[in-house]
Structure formats: C-alpha cells, structure tokens
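anyone seen this seq b4? input:
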Amino acid sequence: MDRWRNRPAPDAPDGLILFDGVCLLCSRWVRFTIDRDSEMRFRFLSIQSEAGRRFAEAMGVSPDAPETNVVVLHGRAWFKSDAALTVLAELRSTRHLGLLKRVPRWFRDPLYDLIAQNRYRLFGRSEVCMVPSPTDRARFLT
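predicted toks r here
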C-alpha cells in the first residue's frame, strides 16, 4: 500500500491527470472532469502517448498494465482512490466528496482496485485513445 502513497512530484505540471486512454471508464472520467472544471485547472495525458509512458514509468506505474491513474496537484502525485478524490475535492460541484478522503485508504483502495482490474470488462475498451473536441484539445498533453 505504501507504493501508492502520495509523494512529491515537483517537476510535473500542476493539475496533470495521467489516464488510460483506451479505457472507456477513464475517458468518461476525463469528460466528467472537463465538464466540471470551469477554472480549466486540469490537463490530461494519456498513458498510451510517449510522454504518458515516460511519466507513468517515472511514477512507478506500468504503462502496459496500469493499476492506477495519477493526479499531480500542489507538487504532489496522488494515486488510486486518493487521485480521484483529490480531483473531486478541487471541482466546485463535487468539492464535498473530497471529505471521503477521511475514509482510510486501506478501505477505499480495494474497491478502487476491484473496479480498475475489471474496467475493460465492465465499461469497455476502445482500440484508439480518446479524441478530444477542438475546444478541449489544448488541455491534452502529448
């Protein structure tokens, strides 16, 4: 569990979300975030991109079999349920859900893992990465 404890990420862009671009659940999570991020705080990086692969490896995430997404905020990298809750706590309409971080990780992360391990079977998979709209394209790093 310590492997996925939040840690410093001083060289990573603030507001970066690393996600699995072929996972339909992950793509929906990105769309959900974009739709609620009126301050345009978050940027997105697909793990299937060259930069995404390098960043994943630097964070200890396998680019070929990712177990977690990664969120960088305030100079720290967050993983698993902490990553999702960190984003939710920053979005005005879901800020109250950040309180779920008070629930211990040992309780939250097994549920996150169960969903992550079955995400393709439950939600589907695309053979190509999510293609952002022209309006959102600037928010995606390559």
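Residues 37 and 88 are 10 Å apart (CA to CA). The radius of gyration is 14 Å. kinda curious what u guys think
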